[in-house]
Amino acid sequence: MNSLDPRVKRLPVIGQPGQIEPKAPLDQFGTFEVFVQPKEGKPFQHEGIVHAPNLEMAFVLAKEAFTRRFMCVSIYVVDTRHVYTSPMTEGNVSVFGFIHETPAQAGEKISYEIYQLIKRGKQHIHAGTVQAVSPQEAMSEAKKVFSTDNKVIYNLWAIRTSDIRFTKPEEQELWLTLPEKKFRDASAYKAGDKLTEFLDKQKN
Amino acid sequence: MNELALKELLYKMADDQLILGHRNSEWTGFGPLLEEDIAFSSMAQDKIGQSHALYSILHSLGEQEPDTIAFTRHADQFHNCLLTELPNGEYDFSLIRHFLYDTAEIIRFDMLTQSSFKPVAELAVKVRAELRYHTLHANTWVKQLGSATEESISRLQHSLEYALPYALGIFEESPYEKELIAEGIFGGEQALKEKWKTKVEEVINQTQLQLPDWKTMQPILGGRKGKHSEHLQPLLDEMSEVFNIDPTAEW
Amino acid sequence: MYGGGNTFEGIKTDSLAQEDPIKLAEFEARIERGEKIEPTDWMPQLYRKQLIRMIEQHAHSEIIGALPEGTWITRAPGFKRKLSLMAKVQDEVGHGQLLYSAAETLGKSREEMINDLISGKSKYSNIFNYPAFTWADSCFISWLVDAGAIVNQLANAKGSYGPYCRALDRICAEESFHLKYGHHCVIYLATGTKKQREMFQEALNRWWAPMMHFFGPSDKISAHTEVLMKWKVKMSSNDDMRNQFLDMYVPKIWELGFTIPDPNLKKNTETGRWEYTEPDWEEFKRVINGDGPCNKERLEVRRIAEERGRWVREALKAPKATYVTPLA
After folding, report:
1. What is the pTM of this model?
2. Which of A78, A157, B65, B162 has its CA 20 to 30 A from that of B15?
3. Is B92 within 8 Å of chain A by CB?
4. Residue A47 lies in a domain
């Protein structure tokens, strides 16, 4: 292709120019929710999604999509379909009013990660872990553990811990050099001195 | 410390990272999936950053400024292996090259964390951390595409067979191997190659790809001595096009 | 990078008559209180439709916007510029990723959006249909086109739709790097050799008209958007954004001793508004409808990129996958 971009000039000829083959559903894969821990001791928070063919790939792709600048010590991902969500409330109505105690269920209790929305418009933040037989019970456990009288929570998510792809201990060094990647920050581009010198010269 | 031996080592590593980082950056905006576009670009940036760090060590040893070294030399003054300068081809080749190269590099920098030359040993700890992502990325993709459809397997197989002789060129020996090993600067290309083969086998064995017999492979050498393919000079001309409008100007 | 030009056209408010009046009142009251709308909340069809349209155009503008600057990605002069430009173009792709995800929460899949981009059905910012002839053009884009985009994006970040606002918060934080980087590049050209100064002056001459188009047609001739303003979908009028941009950046361009190619450009000290030669809105329309210098190339590059990646995606498509919209 004729172009000012040498990379475009090198592109192979594929198909007919202008002839579009529409994408089939799921050509861009399913979605995975991405959670980031900005600092040791801080809770994980929801950051967004990636499209990926599977959980492992989602982890690999999420790392650069969401943590190539700012602070990060750990991430994890989960298939969007594996996040159980409560209703969403507003004003001063807390979601806990809509979560009812579940009758005791038979079965093995497993662990669930609970996320809560503290302010509408903001991200969901990790509240803690509960043990439950089902997602419904996890929500009701969350109500027992995390509802306090003065705090309005608008939405809850429950995620089976075993559905999550966590950062492995040996992967923790993935973010080791992140603070050194200054070229991605505005602070690396100071030209004030050069400008002042130029302006002074113009005046004289 | 044998400075000639050390500089030779630093030049070839820096040139490798620069040329491959440059090649990989050509994918930016053209990747097979938005998320992968971003990931590939980050790894290209890491490589450019790593080459800059290595050229900076060279500068501290009396060589010219990193910009001058990178943007004004002629192809025959570059010591990168030929694998890094080959055109990107399709994603299968770019991926296989990334896999073969970074598998070697993480071992190389792991060895270098023990280097008797402190500036390199310190840098190697950081580079190794970045390469941990590169190899996680490469291994994940190769394992998946190498076991998926007939087309993906045959594409990767073809690229693997094409790239392997070039990949063996990564380990082309320096005239100073003995000195580097004796002085504890670097454990040597031969040791690196053996570890690399094991790791490559380990990953390929988890796929439906076939690794050709190592004995039948003829390494393609020359890059470390400045003998390059027809692809390097055009790459350098393109890379320095703006810089060369006025090499004394500040851009 | 997105300026908001020509996003809304032909809005018919008839469909509002079919909406549940109580729900509509609650919806509007929520926006009035300054609360965000989230994907699971009730919303009028018109709101959903226009938001998809706007966020999708914004996403396309990022993906296509990676191309003009990408023209120089292999030729950036020196290590510092090389790394910065790589990171900058990468960010544009990243912004596209974030914005497509935000649009998806409203029910349109990424596949459909990309199809509509490549087929030309869906638009993107007009400015990216112009070529980047020299390195200085890429500096113009990094500094001034991004500056224009920030004016628009900062306004939109105060809008009513939660997922879009969250994406924009992230994008705006990254754009501050783009703006500083671009200004840094231009200061170096301005204070450099004669040749460097000429390069930037020429780029400025080429890009000024598209830059004035960037914020969309003047309010006098653009479609009615009152309901979208009320719903905090559109946050600022085209002329207001253009004026804000001129206010912030014309002095900075002049300070560097460059000439802006519009003899009528000046600030009216009485009204506080900038006066300028009316941009050629016929050209704007012509280019947005496909007849610009690079429209064909931009879409063709996208088409080829998607085609080249097809085997990769087909290989990894999971048989059990089902489509769900992102949560937030």
Report:
1. 0.97
2. B162
3. no
4. yes
